[in-house]
Amino acid sequence: MTLTIKPLAVAIALISAPAYAEDGKRHFDIPAQSLATALQQLSAQSGTAMLYAEQSAAGKTSPALQGEYTLEDAIRRLLIGSGLIHSINADGTVTLKPGDGSSATTLGAVTVVGKALYETDPYSSDYQRLSSSTATKTDTPIMQTPMSIKVVPQQVLKDQQVISIDQALRNVSGVIGGSDANREFFVRGFSTYNYYRDGFPFISNWFHTEDLANIDRVEVLKGPGSILYGRAEPGGIINFVTKQPLDTPYYSVRQQFGSYSHYRTDIDATGPLTENKDLAYRVNFAYQANDSITEFSGGERVFAAPMLRWRISDKTTSTVKLEYSDIKTNATNPLLLNPDGSQQGFTTRRQNLNDPWGYTEDEYLMFSMNTEHDFNDNWRLRHRFNASFMQETIRNITASGAVDPLTGDVGRFFFQQNADGRDYMNNFYNSLELTGKFQTGAVKHTLVIGGDYQRTDARATMGPVFGLGGSNIYNPAHLAEIPAIPSYNTFRYEQPWFGVYAQDQAELPYHIHILGGLRYDYAETSGDTHYAVFGGSKSKDLLVNEDKVSPRAGVLWHPLRELSLYGSYTENFGAANSYKDNGIALPPQTADQWETGIKTELFDGHFTGSLTYYDLKKQNLPMQPCQGCPSQAIGEAETRGLELDISGEVWPGLKLIGAYSYMPFAQTIKDSVGSDKIGKRLHNVPENSGNLWLTYDFQQSELQGLKVGAGIQAVGRRYIGYSEAIKTPGYATLNLMVSQMWKVGQTHVTAQLNADNLLDKTYLGGVYAYGMGLYGMPRTFVGSIKVEF
After folding, report:
1. What are the pLDDT digits (tens) for 390-404?
2. Could you give the dihedral angle defined by the CA atoms of residues 645, 650, 653 and 654, in that order, rounded to the nearest 10 degrees?
3. How far is CA 87 from the centre of its chain?
4. d(CA 76, CA 659)
5. CDD domains this protein is in (predicted)?
6. 311-348 pLDDT per residue, tens
């Protein structure tokens, strides 16, 4: 190919020689536009001549480039998704040429041991990610991964002013969230309380809420993922990827203010601690306080996460992190529901049967350490350790029984957890993993071999008090002080879990990719229950041992850069975590899934999409027939459906992220405790649900920095419980945003306003299988001022 030297670039290079900082970086300010124009501006701002064939840049676009970069990093950033590679010549000029698809240096591709540039750019405005490690534990292009993966990147979280998990996950197909008080989510029809942080299992329960102050992005692997993660729910893996220390200093402060006395401060600071940048830090801090539309309801939280990264040598790096959060929320009493999904008696969202002193408090501390050693360019050893500790305290009044339709009278009882102040939930995780790349003949392999050990220890004391007298929804009677607890039940369990696994990603000729893996798990569950309430004092001891080998296999054909076709089969294993009325553990939960799909990557990697069909079965699904009742195990449940996910930039400045789920089949197909549930639709699983969010960055110079956005979230009708006795209506909410960014020297100042549920739709967000629910968020406005430098 003949390379043409761009005359303008050479002229600029000869007459302008801008001074670089001592670290080789300078400031660039290049908007998203055509690649040819971006390269001209890069040449002008760097004083570097660009040599390339004009046709190689024709019809291609580039992302925005704003901030401090070396020339090398600036070129890489502009060339992401272009298919071009670059080299810096001895005379300082830069040569660009089309990359060989098999070349390890092709721009936009990510190797196992490398990092994409957008992982280290706090100013990145990308709405799509081209690679993910959640599905395979290797940073693999999504187009070459035979599973369904959705990534919600940092810019989406910023544009939507996301501060809660359910706000982030509404961008993912097949995920139905709860409300602020309920951290249960349904992925492909099955419930999960389990999350992961950088691949670590994360302590969670019904009430604990995750703060997103130090989260860079959210990655969701659809379907079973226990082969790499051990115990997991089969619907999917929800993995929060945290922000990492940077070699370039970056600081930001964001102040939010909004409806219902919402107040939140976020601080983010990172940079090197030593001149050679071997030691770097990052600190994230957040404080939030808010009221609610519901009386006596609100909350306060504090979150802090310091992190330190040490490059011990050019081959060894260790990162340590500490997280602390204290979350206190005033309780909202769940609504008692009628068969048509309407609430029993309540006439406004303001009413609350709970007392002003009712609250839930979660205190959480976590320490983690991640050490990586590269033997060479192809082999890496990684050790990870995580320890987390949580204590939860609950003091709540809860409605009991049905509301009298004539008088409005309703029963109630007091519920207390951590009755003696000695409850705990501790989790420990330890893993060792070897990743390597090698070749056998014409087949390229990426091998992962590892083992992990995790242990959960928990103790909970729970004490209900009855005989408090009833209340009335029209004239609630509130207690002046917390009732005394005469006795309480104590629950304790220990759950050690050990697993070993192996996975091979093989790249064959003709763009065929095969993934295969096996995992062996051995799990124990032991504990005891001491009943001082519900029938007098008694105790039950529990000891269960379980093991299983689980396979996973997938094949993908990538015939065109813009197209991939794949199919996969996966099995899942989960230990017993519920009990029958006699204190004996339910049988372990297992699952299997078939999946097939098509993926696309358009506009030089600026837009990605996937369409997936799945058939997922779960055995021994636990079900709670009533509030406080022991669980039962349904024999088998099955969900089948289609999922569509799209994200990216479809026109200069116009970005979108969308999700749609169609689940026509979600039923109990085997019932080991009776036949009344066979053929009935599963709890809290709509047939149709979706979300679409669009933003537009104005490209005109006189409007530069102005952004507007709009989105809609829709959820179809859902059954509550497993007998189709209660059905809630569907709903749709409208969300808007507008922001303006100004540059003041090297500082970015952004003012932003978001309106969620603009039309103030009244709907049920979180629902409980025993016939209760919680209101979704009303119309809220959140404004913010953010300063970055």
Report:
1. 988 888 777 776 777
2. -60
3. 37
4. 30
5. ligand_gated_channel
6. 999 999 999 999 999 998 887 766 666 666 666 555 57
Whole-angstrom Cα distance, residue 627 to residue 767?
A: 12
Predicted local distance difference test score (pLDDT) of residue 12: 35
Q: Which residues contact 780 (CB under 8 A, 6 or more apart)?
A: 258, 259, 260, 262, 755, 756, 757
CATH class as words, domain 197-788? mainly beta
Q: pLDDT-derived band of residue 489, with 50, 70 and 90 as boundaries?
A: confident
Asked whether the beta carbons of 746 and 788 are under 8 A apart, the reply is: no
How far apart are alpha carbons 373 and 366 in whole angstroms?
Answer: 24
CA 27 to chain centre: 32
The tokens describing 104, both together, are 């390890």
Residue 425: Cβ within 10 Å count: 21
CA nearest to 781, candidates 256, 289, 75: 256
| 671/516 Cα distance (integer angstroms) | 33
Let me know if the fold of 1-109 is the same as that of 197-788: no
Instruction: Report CA dihedral (18, 21, 25, 26) to the nearest 10 degrees.
Output: -40
| Contact in structure between 501 and 429 (CB atoms under 8 Å) | no
Over range 385-389, report the average pLDDT.
95
pLDDT for residue 535 is more than 60: no
Closest by CA position to 627, among listed 784, 767, 420, 443:
767
Helix (H), strand (E) at residue 588: none
Per-residue confidence at 112, pLDDT binned at 50, 70, 90? very low
pLDDT digits (tens, 9 = 90+) for 249-268: 999 999 999 999 999 999 99
What's the count of helices (H) and strands (E) in the chain, helices before strands?
Answer: 7, 47
Give the domain ranges of the chain: 1-109, 197-788
Residue type, 712: I
Distance (Å, rounded) from C-alpha 581 to C-alpha 463? Answer: 17
Looking at residue 542, its pLDDT comes to 65
How is domain 1-109 classified at the CATH fold level? Phage tail protein beta-alpha-beta fold (3.55.50)
Encoded tokens for 202:
């994360």
Provide the pLDDT for residue 8.
Answer: 37
Please state the separation of Cα 349 from the chain's center in Å: 29
pTM above 0.85, yes or no: no
